[in-house]
Amino acid sequence: MNCEQPGCTGQIVDGYCDVCGMAPASSASAQASTPVSTPADRSQGSGPAPGSGTSASSSRSRRTGSGRTRGSSSSRLGGGLVEIPAVPYRDPADAVMTNPVVAESRRLCTKCDQPVGRGTDGQPGRTSGFCRNCGAPFSFDPQLHAGDLVARQYQVVGCLAHGGMGWIYLARDRNVSDRWVVLKGLLGSGDADAMAAALAERRFLAEVEHPNIVKIFNFVQQGGAGYIVMEYVGGQSLKQILAGRRDATGGNPNPIPVGQAIAYMIEILPAFGYLHEQELLFCDFKLDNVIQTRHSLKLIDLGGVYRIGDESSAIFGTVGYQAPEIAAAGPSIASDLFTVARTLAVMCFDFRGYQGDFRYTLPGPDAVALFARIDSLYRLLLKGTATNPDDRFQSAEEMADQLQGVLREVVAVDEGRPVPGLSKLFTGALRAGPDPAGWRALPRSQVARDDPAAGYLAAITVTDPEQAVAQLLAAPEQTVEVRLALAAALIETGEWFEVGEQLAAIESDDAWDWRVPWLRGVAELAQGRGAPAEAQFTTVYQALPGELAPKLALAVACELAGEPSAAAAWYDVVSRTDPAFTVASFGLARCRLTAGDRAGALAAYERVPDSSSAYIDAQTARIRCLGGDGASVDELLSAGSIVEALGVSAEQRAQLTAELLESALGLVQRDASAGQRRGRLLGHPLSERALRSGLEGSYRTLARQAASSHDRVRLVDQANRVRPRTWT
After folding, report:
1. 113, 173, 284, 301: the active-site residue
2. Is CATH 3.20.20.150 the classification given to domain 420-614?
3. Higher confidence at residue 666 or residue 190?
């Protein structure tokens, strides 16, 4: 069988080309050689050098639950929300080091992580020798040099960098159109058979195909060392980008803008999701191992990729990024995502001590201004780096979805630009008017489509809570979704004991199902208990830091608990990020008015978009806020302009007109100078006589439209009370 790679003349032998080493497009992972594992030292690995790491013996079993978030989040770099500075393509030849020397400060023993090769008494340290601590050999000299031909195919051009597994070289593939390739050390061994087995074990990496993962072409052996042959990716690593920003400020900390940093992680997480679907773990993710090209990001170091369930191979990781349980429990999807959260933290603030005092933890909002400003980012990082792996994100898709929500909030807060978006977990925002919000104004969790009873639940259309309870109890199967729907219906009927029983049963099956504390919080709100509801919704917020629904629920709970300042902060975040949550705009206005901040309330009403069904209510509330007690002439005139432009019924217009003219009359009576102002309020000059005449007409219009004789008489009496005095 001929090789299918462009420009290659090789033949497929034992599943791989005998010239370029590539597998045919139709080959499957089953064709790869049977893995031969080598025992690994389980001690803690080295520091920040690329490819350094630790080993562990087993993979943790993972718990899943229906309450876990699902979905995917993949988009172009920046997600259309933030601008990512372009990285120009770098000519490969320009990337070669002119003097390939490893700085003494980065010379560490690969076995015990102790310093080696350090100079004394003004004399430079040795670049090769033996570790004084454990006796292991070390060498920081390049094994390959310009002109060397590796495996009779790859001609070395020079060194690109030094990593934990040795030097990384640039070469040309003489068998495939002289394309640029990178050679990276795989495992050092003087045993040819062990090296051959190690190379065979890693051949599965050639089957990895994802646009955000560097392509592996081949695995070769030269002089007792093994090398991964991969595509050359022109660009800059995130570590280089961060270092460049620091250099631009004279060596002072200059973190990557938080929106850009989050966008990087959103871009790269689908690659993790792909690897995890293949039952592979990246293990050693950090700033060094991802490169920004002109159009995307790429994972560039697959030397530490680990098969889930492999209990004998070495596990690589880097201090400050690696999860705490690795040595005892081995890597997992949750530990892979731990490295993503740590990388994000290192990028977006001056994270001092991340390899020391904060090796597994985070400083708090009191020490990091970014966390105080964007609390949801702090909560996301806390979840991503939780001590218990079960408390972390359980899939790359889940983490990406929550990061997308945090990014929307960052853009809204930093740029003042709302970024609406649909939630995969909650129903759409509900319309709400100016009345105080209650638990019925909150979104509801969506039914999982893979639940066996999803179809049955969709067919329940009754609006009477008691009928809904009866139908749910009669469901063919009491699935999790049926129990949740039943608990929600029981809240409507006020059967609190039964609500508790249903939620306790769900929790016993999955303690991480966020919908349990969500409904408990709703039940507390329904009983008028704000503080207990706040505690429940805080739990939901910690699980879903990128969702707006928990923040809205916290606002409602705080307002009910008599904490208008705290409620206003939550309402502000929600309405600023997505104005479709009109309940948040009205809630923010109420809290601002409670604090005596009329300007803040007016700004809150203005957040309700004119496309919303709540727009008329918002503008009506804005008119009344402008024209209320203590209004100035300018405020009354502004309110009148809004009334004139507002498309409302004749009755509503007459009512608003009457209210504004009453306020204007009171102002003119208190302050004679106000009556001397030029301008007309809804067509009436600002004189007492003109205002009285206008008021009389408004009240008589309302009287003609009154629904009852009692209201008609009352309105006529008001008209008579305010009409201008005459001598006839």
Report:
1. 284
2. no
3. 666
